Each structure stands twice: as structure tokens, then as C-alpha cells.
User: What shape does this take?
Amino acid sequence: MNADPSLRPPSATRVAVVTGGSRGIGRAISRKLAQDGLAVVVNYARDAGAAEETVAAVTADGGRAIAVQGDVADEDAVAALFHRAEEEFGGVDAVVNSAGRLALSPIAELDLKVFDAVHRTNVRGAFVVARQAARRLRTGGSFVALSTSVVGTQFPSYGAYAASKGAVEAMTMILARELRGRDITVNTVAPGPTATDLFLEGKTDEEIDRLAKIPPLERLGSPEDIADVVAFLTSPQGHWVNGQILRANGGLV
Assistant: This one.
């Protein structure tokens, strides 16, 4: 049975579920939320070692975290993820859907099997996680999805990825309106070029330098930059922001 969203005592620890929380931006979000006092459920798809490293980093800083495996596109796995959060920590107050898949290719050349895999994780996965968040979040909670600023910049080769994240952005205000009366916020953060291993892999120093110079702030974002924005949106201070797409990109577009 789902937990009653109204049952959290005022003094109880707030709890976050972070999908894709084991590496890159997701790891930074997990650590930041834990530093802000939330107990964190670090979801991962395959790399158990990376997830345990994230948990170890959180606990070394004095926080509380557990790692839970699960494919975000699998509704049973996601339901089990939320059940584990409720069982371990008593409920869920913040959900951050950071899990995602990237594939770069001109539209004319993209293998449709790759297209389907990207959309299974980025669209179906986002929907499945949002569905559980809508059912399980306690009063005063927050849901934050991750998109990409490429939805706005529309760089070549990002067609499948940008299309999948455009779907995420389209769901944002709809879900915010559907949760009327429950004091739950729904927002999406759309990072620009961010210095993660995934982003840096395969790029020359010249390419990285060129991309870093595009925003007016003339640098790449860091995972911590994005984590700070997410932490604000899940905090009481950010609770008046609702139904928004925030392009956290240094002024890229």
C-alpha cells in the first residue's frame, strides 16, 4: 500500500530518490541533497560499483544513502525503488529523474534500434518515474526532471536526444497542474555543456575549449552547478517555482 503523503511528521528527515544517481550530474545531485540533510536513495541501472562509490561519498560526509538498482523504464522496478525508499526512510519528499541515454547521429543515419533505446530510457523512463512520484510524494514535495539545453540550441546530430528531452519538457507543466492541491512542485532543469566524463569522452581539447567559449560565462558547467539548481528547486526556498523549464547553461540560449 502506498504511504499517505500527509503522514510525514514535521521533524522527520526529508528523503530523496535520485535516478541515475551514481555518476556525473546524478552523483553531484545525490551528494548535494545529502549535504542539505536529505536521506538519498541512489538509483542506478548497471554500474553497482559507481553507485556504491556515491553512497560511500555521501556517508563519508556524514549523510545517509543507499543504492538501489533498477531500470527507470521498467514500471515494476521503479515501483520497487519507491517502496524501498519508503521502507528504509519512511517516505519520499523529492524525486530527481537524472537517468538518461545519449546517442549522437544525423537523423538520416540513425539506427532506429538506437532511437528506440534512447526514447525508452528518456521518455518512457521519465514518464514511469513521474507516475510513481505523483503517487508517492508527500505533501510539500518536489519532482525535478533533467532535460538538455540542446532542445533550444538544436545542434546537428542531437535529433533523437533533443526529441526525447522535448517530451520531458512537455510533461512538466501538465504534471504540475495535475498535482494541484497537494503542495507538490514539478520542474525541469535543462543543463548546457557540462564537464562530465560522458560529455568529455571522445572530444579533443580544441573541441572542448570551443564549446566552453560559447556561453557568455565562457566555461563549461560543472555537475555541481546543476546540483545546486536542483537542490534549490527541492528546498523550501525554491518551492514557489513550479511548472518551469530552467536552462542552467551560463547563457547558452
